[in-house]
């Protein structure tokens, strides 16, 4: 059957397949060769033209699809913005919850649930307006009632939240369903950092007494408003959680994330985690010690070196060992440490030695601002001289430091059972052993260390890391009011001058003036040898190269690597694009 088509009123009859075959049979061999040659040439040129046209009129964009699998060491316990302490809990909080503001991964804050905010001239009032049509993962509307409830819970002493100190003196006042004010008793310059706190749904938590909140199932099965919602939890035959499966939240404040599913896989050890990565069970691992990075054999990966303001130090509990109460002894202990060797041998150079409580990269970092006399000579000889001046001499037979009563200088370091900290503890033991100090090491799983060692202050010396904020406020770490749980003054440090400096700095909005206060604060802490500050490491994040859209550079906690997770993608697609 013939096919008829028309162009501009002209009618054309197309030959049928039978007629085409009859025509070709009439061709000579030479004519047939020419015919098929030009037919192939026509098809090839036409295909190339179509592809070129497609490239001109379409572009490649991220596609909403795929599964991202990430592994961590340890299990979740408190996936709650107000109670989370471990990195595992904070990672999941970052994925499941949303705050009024959100870090951008570059050291700044952007809007999250908030549409806008304003700060009063006196710095005592912050007004926030919520975006329209916000809902929780269970589709219940989000209102300012949820915001006020979260703020009041954070400051409730019965809850013993580790962030309580940042919310003291703050009163939320609801204007309407979308507008809320925070009234401050006194100026608190870093207050906007509080607004990154994940908001809790009041309708879920309101009927649970504060004393029982830490026991609620919603700490394990959380409902938030963040980029991902909990889909399911997998457990092994013993009932131990092995995986959290999260699904992208279509009503997220920044739009549905491009990666459809996020699987969070839990491993019992670093070795098991690395094995899982090498066997491609997972696509990314974070916080891996530098020495372990060298052992990873998987190809097709990308290593990101992120700036994370952390302070690793040895904190001495003066309540457990009276000897630690003497400044000269704490100074002697620090003089015996070669920090450069720790950075080189344990951290492969992915760190910077520290002299004080605020790390490099923050606006009030110490370094050149500190009097050089405070950070002078460190050597075994210098340390021994200080010990001798304080009544300790090296016993010729045992090689140990002893006092006139025959007591041996001995103490225990408690730390987390992760490779870089255990290796650092061993190196510290060796360095102190050279001058005759007997050091024992106690290792704990991180959750056990937090709950049973740090919170009750059950340690003699503690090798641990503190995370300092984007706008550093050392109040929770060094003010004397924070010496007991839930405060974070794990050095149990008391200094009235430091207390005053920290209180004053919180009230100053002018950055340069606040910097001056923090420099004075650091000089006091360093002169007191309140802790043996060791290093500030980079945060290492290794991922499969298929991941696109990752842009984080400066983060304040490891979980902030997910700050812009809604822009990550694994696949692309072609869409029409006009070149005009």
Q: What does it look like?
A:
By secondary structure, this protein is of the alpha+beta class. The chain folds into three domains: 3-61, no CATH class; 67-307 and 539-572, D-Maltodextrin-Binding Protein, domain 2; 310-537, Dipeptide-binding Protein, domain 3 (Roll). 29% of the residues lie in helices and 24% in strands. The chain has 16 helices and 25 strands. The protein has a seven-stranded mixed beta sheet with strand order 11-12-13-4-14-24-15. The radius of gyration is 31 Å and the shape is globular.
What would a concise description of this structure say?
This protein is 29% helix and 24% strand. By secondary structure, the chain is an alpha+beta fold.
SSE topology:
Blueprint: E1 3-7, E2 10-14, H1 17-26, H2 29-57, E3 58-63, E4 67-73, H3 87-96, E5 101-103, E6 109-111, E7 114-119, E8 125-130, H4 144-154, E9 170-174, E10 179-184, H5 191-194, H6 202-205, E11 228-235, E12 241-248, E13 261-267, H7 270-278, E14 284-286, H8 290-293, E15 301-306, E16 310-316, H9 327-335, H10 339-345, E17 351-353, H11 380-389, E18 393-394, E19 401-402, E20 410-416, H12 419-434, E21 438-444, H13 446-454, E22 461-467, H14 475-478, H15 496-507, H16 511-528, E23 531-537, E24 539-544, E25 571-576
Parallel strand pairs: 4-13, 4-14, 20-21, 20-22
Antiparallel strand pairs: 1-2, 3-25, 5-6, 7-8, 8-10, 9-10, 11-12, 12-13, 14-24, 15-24, 16-22, 16-23, 17-23, 18-19
Helix pairs in contact: 9-11, 15-16
List descriptors:
580 residues, D-Maltodextrin-Binding Protein, domain 2, six-stranded mixed β-sheet
> How far apart are the first and last residues' alpha carbons, in Å?
42 Å
Average of the residue pLDDT scores:
89
Lateral strand order in the biggest sheet = 11-12-13-4-14-24-15
By CATH reckoning, the class of the largest domain would read Alpha Beta
What is the CATH topology descriptor of the largest domain? D-Maltodextrin-Binding Protein, domain 2
Separate helix tally:
16
Indicate the overall shape: globular
Low-confidence stretches: 366-375
What number of structural domains do the residues give? 3
Helix content: 25-40%
Query: What structural category do the secondary elements indicate?
Result: alpha+beta
Q: What radius of gyration results from the CA coordinates?
A: 31 Å
| Strand proportion | 15-25%
Q: Largest sheet at a glance?
A: 7 strands, mixed
């Amino acid at each position: 059957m013939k096919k008829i088509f028309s162009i501009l009123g002209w009618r054309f009859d197309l030959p049928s397949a039978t007629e085409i075959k009859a025509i070709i049979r009439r061709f000579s061999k030479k004519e047939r060769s020419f015919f098929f040659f030009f037919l192939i040439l026509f098809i090839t040129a036409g295909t190339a033209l179509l592809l070129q046209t497609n490239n001109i009129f379409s572009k490649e964009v991220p596609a909403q699809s795929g599964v991202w699998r990430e592994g961590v060491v340890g299990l979740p316990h408190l996936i709650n913005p107000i109670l989370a302490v471990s990195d595992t809990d904070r990672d999941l909080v970052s994925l499941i919850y949303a705050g009024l503001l959100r870090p951008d991964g570059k050291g700044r804050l952007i809007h999250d649930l908030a549409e806008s905010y304003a700060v009063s001239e006196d710095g005592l009032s912050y007004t926030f307006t919520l975006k329209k049509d916000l809902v929780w993962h269970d589709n219940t509307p989000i209102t300012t009632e949820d915001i006020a409830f979260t703020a009041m819970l954070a400051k409730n002493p019965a809850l013993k939240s580790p962030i309580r100190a940042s919310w003291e003196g703050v009163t939320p006042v609801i204007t309407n369903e979308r507008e809320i004010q925070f009234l401050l008793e006194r100026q608190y310059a870093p207050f906007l950092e509080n607004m990154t706190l994940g908001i809790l749904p009041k309708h879920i938590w309101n009927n649970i007494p504060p004393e029982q909140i830490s026991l609620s199932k919603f700490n394990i099965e959380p409902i938030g408003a963040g980029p991902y919602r909990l889909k399911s939890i997998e457990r092994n035959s013993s009932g131990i959680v092995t995986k959290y499966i999260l699904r992208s939240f279509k009503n997220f404040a920044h739009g549905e994330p491009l990666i459809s599913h996020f699987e969070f896989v839990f491993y019992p050890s670093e070795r098991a985690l690395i094995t899982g990565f090498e066997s491609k069970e997972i696509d990314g691992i974070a916080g891996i010690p530098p020495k372990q990075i060298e052992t990873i054999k998987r190809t097709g990966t990308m290593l990101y070196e992120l700036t994370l303001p952390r302070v690793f130090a040895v904190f001495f509990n003066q309540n457990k060992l009276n000897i630690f109460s003497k400044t000269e002894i704490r100074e002697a202990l620090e003089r015996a440490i070669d920090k450069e060797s720790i950075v080189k041998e344990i951290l492969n150079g992915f760190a910077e030695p520290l002299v004080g409580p605020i790390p490099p990269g923050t606006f009030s970092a110490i370094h050149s601002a500190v009097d050089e006399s405070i950070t002078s000579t460190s050597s075994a000889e210098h340390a021994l001289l200080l010990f001798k001046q304080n009544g300790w001499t090296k016993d010729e037979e045992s090689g140990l430091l002893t006092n006139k009563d025959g007591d041996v200088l001995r103490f225990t370091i408690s730390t987390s059972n992760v490779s870089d900290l255990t290796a650092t503890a061993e190196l510290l033991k060796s360095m102190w052993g050279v001058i005759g100090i007997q050091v024992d090491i106690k290792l704990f799983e991180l959750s056990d260390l937090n709950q049973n060692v740090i919170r009750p202050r059950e340690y003699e010396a503690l090798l641990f890391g503190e995370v300092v904020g984007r706008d550093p406020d050392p109040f929770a770490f060094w003010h004397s009011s924070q010496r007991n749980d839930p405060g974070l003054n794990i050095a149990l440090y008391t200094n009235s001058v430091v207390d005053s400096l920290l209180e004053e700095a919180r009230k100053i909005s002018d950055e340069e003036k606040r910097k001056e206060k923090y420099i004075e604060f650091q000089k006091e802490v360093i002169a007191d040898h309140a802790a043996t500050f060791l290093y500030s490491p980079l945060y290492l994040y290794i991922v499969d190269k298929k991941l696109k859209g990752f842009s984080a550079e400066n983060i304040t906690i490891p979980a902030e690597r997910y700050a812009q997770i809604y822009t990550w993608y694994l696949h692309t697609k072609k869409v029409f694009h006009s070149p005009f």
